[in-house]
Amino acid sequence: MPSVLILNGPNLNLLGTRQPDVYGKTTLADVHGMCKDEAARLGLTITFEQSNHEGVLIDLIHAAKGTHDAIVLNAGAYTHTSIALMDAIASVELPVVEVHLSNIHAREEFRHTSYIAPVAVGQICGFGAKGYLMALDALSERLVTT
Ligand code: DQA
Questions:
Q1: Which of 4, 31, 95, 132 has a 20 to 30 Å separation from 120 between CA atoms?
Q2: Sign (positive/negative) of CA torsion 6, 40, 134, 91?
Q3: What is the CATH number of the domain that holds 59?
Q4: Which residue in 133, 138, 59 sits closest to 92, CA to CA?
């Protein structure tokens, strides 16, 4: 069964209480539960992780090589700053789908730049927690056809 790492970056542990007008009231535990159900439906196994630390996220991306077949990544604010995360993704050569709950392109100018996008297979943003399920769906098709 294909295995997908779902990786969440800084401040996403506060989902549900953090700026609910922007990010909604769904908690990260709720997102995990929704992803488990969707993965079972799609025939995928998932590992769900969150860290507020850039280096930990990089270590988890490195460890994914040989362990997981793909990554769903919401890198939070590191999306807009981290060349190191971009390099880590390029190094492991695993398909990565970039996810954001909010539509980063409709927000402040500094959120329009993503260092993840050039090394991702695609980007899903603006659909709230459903974006994670859309990412799993897109990856499941890709993992059976590639
Ligand atoms: C986010 C968007 C980022 O700009 C922000 O820094 C986050 C969350 C999202 O899911 O919409 O922390 O990645």
A1: 31
A2: positive
A3: 3.40.50.9100
A4: 59
The residue among 63, 67, 62, 133 whose CA lies nearest residue 97 is 133
The yes-or-no answer on residue 68 being catalytic is no
pLDDT tens digits along 88-125:
999 999 999 999 999 999 999 999 999 999 999 999 99
* Atom 9 in ligand 1: residue holding the nearest Cα: 100
Please say whether the beta carbons of 78 and 13 come within 8 A: no
> Per the structure block, which two tokens stand in for 110?
């500094």
Structure tokens at 34: 């929704």
**Which helix (H) or strand (E) segment is 143 a member of?**
helix 130-145
Token match 């970056």: residue? 9
Provide the number of structural domains found in the chain.
Answer: 1
Q: What is the DSSP letter of 80?
A: G
| Average pLDDT of the chain, as a whole number | 96
CA 132, CA 87: separation in Å to the nearest integer? 23
Q: DSSP E strands: which ranges in 68-107?
A: 70-74, 96-100
Determine whether 132 is an active site residue. Answer: no
SS3 content of the chain, % helix, strand, coil (to 5): 50, 20, 30
Choose the catalytic residue: 23, 78, 115, 132: 23
